[in-house]
Specification:
five-stranded antiparallel β-sheet; Arc Repressor Mutant, subunit A; globular; two-stranded antiparallel sheet; 18% strand; Alpha-D-Glucose-1,6-Bisphosphate, Chain A, domain 4; 2 domains; alpha+beta
Length: 324
């Protein structure tokens, strides 16, 4: 049974923790500051923070000194409030052993037990404050937090990843450039692993790091070309070994035109760590490493695409036809 938060719940909790850790400063936090600290995708950040505002847990302010701030001190906000701001009311929507709501004529034998379990979880979350969670987050960041005995370190973990990067190329030019950058993908991926590990010494000490070895990396077109009038799609796959931990990424890359000279690369997929290749990371650490590495890879890829000679980026002109 999966007891984790949804992706939206994850992002809302991360954002709330970020606002809690800065609450005593007394100023509003910009979206870019929350994104930099939490690694919530830039494209979702405004929606996530809006969830906190709509629930009354945060306030927003426009202008140079504007941004977002908790509406109450973190010690007065419960974890339950934050979770419900993203997930909705924490209660069973249907019978534990059925597909519909509980009815007396078809009462479920697990009804009382399930109801008590839900009530116990709600009670625990309601008496755990955002201040407590923020303090734990600070201790984990400082490397002083004791790893729980039941931490998820004993088995492989897969996490969903998604990110977006802008490229100063038209959609057609970008589509063409992607077909000509394959020779440097391995170097970009290996360098991105180093970027992703930077600043995470508390998770993987520098003495235990090893240089990444690229066993496989490919970018294959799986959708129509941009010249067909539809967004082009590619499949990005890599297998990296030697790093801590080794990783396997499988993601779809789509091209979206912003205007005549700019486009976006949107990436969405799954990142898995290799259980036979180095130290396994727990879920939160793995997710943070995966996001940092993917972000670093996309930035490096965008630079490589933009730095290609203009002649190699120009879409081929239509073949002329001689008049009779």
């Amino acid at each position: 049974m999966d007891m984790t938060l949804s992706k939206r719940g994850d992002y809302v909790m991360r954002s709330a923790i970020s606002l809690a850790r800065s609450f005593e400063v007394g100023t509003h936090r910009k979206i870019r500051e929350v994104v930099a600290e939490t690694e919530v995708p830039q494209t979702f950040a405004s929606q996530i923070l809006a969830d906190l505002v709509r629930s009354g847990l945060a306030t927003s302010k426009a202008g140079r000194d504007g941004g977002y701030r908790l509406a109450r001190p973190p010690a007065e906000i419960s974890v339950l409030e934050v979770i419900e701001a993203a997930e909705g009311p924490l209660r069973s929507e249907r019978c534990a052993l059925g597909e519909g709501p509980c009815r007396w004529e078809a009462v479920c034998p697990l009804h009382e037990t399930w109801s008590q379990a839900t009530a116990t979880l709600r009670e625990l979350l309601s008496r755990t404050t955002l201040a407590e969670v923020a303090a734990r987050d600070a201790a984990i960041e400082a490397g002083t937090y004791a790893v729980p005995a039941d931490a998820h370190r004993s088995h492989p973990v897969a996490v969903d990843v998604a990110d977006v990067v802008q490229v100063e190329l038209s959609e057609g030019a970008l589509d063409l450039a992607l077909t000509r950058v394959t020779s440097v993908l391995g170097a970009l991926a290996a360098a991105a692993v180093e970027d992703g590990a930077a600043g995470l010494e508390s998770v993987t000490p520098r003495s235990r790091r090893r240089s990444a070895r690229v066993d496989e990396v490919s970018l294959v077109q799986v959708g129509p070309s941009s010249r067909d009038g539809e967004p082009a799609r590619y499949l990005l796959v890599w297998q990296l070994a030697g790093s801590v931990p080794g990783s396997h990424l499988e993601a779809e890359v789509s091209l979206v035109a912003l205007d005549a000279e700019r486009s976006e690369l949107r990436v969405e997929g799954t990142w898995r760590q290799d259980p036979d290749n180095g130290l396994l990371l727990a879920g939160p650490e793995l997710e943070r490493r995966a996001r940092r590495t993917l972000r670093a890879f996309l930035r490096r890829l965008a630079r490589a695409l933009e730095e290609q000679p203009a002649s190699s980026r120009r879409p081929p002109s239509p073949r002329s036809t001689a008049l009779p």
